Amino acid sequence: MPSYEEEKRKNLDAYRKLKDEIRAKYLGQYVAIADGRLVKVSPSFEAADEAVRVFGHRLVFPAGEEPEIGPLRLRFGRIALSLG
What's the whole-model pTM score? Predict the structure, then answer.
């Protein structure tokens, strides 16, 4: 199972590769990226977010805007701590 930081890197790499396509095709909609791929495009943030909620790290953002990169997340066994 990849770490949270590995998932984050994979998703950011996918975003960089898909950035132009996302802006060209999906402007005005919300985009969800997880597991290194585009998972969902929806007019609703809630629907896009719901589609990727099962993933540790995910990006959900309006097409045409940069995704917000969340805080560093550290895991200690079953406890997760978010910094930032």
Answer: 0.81
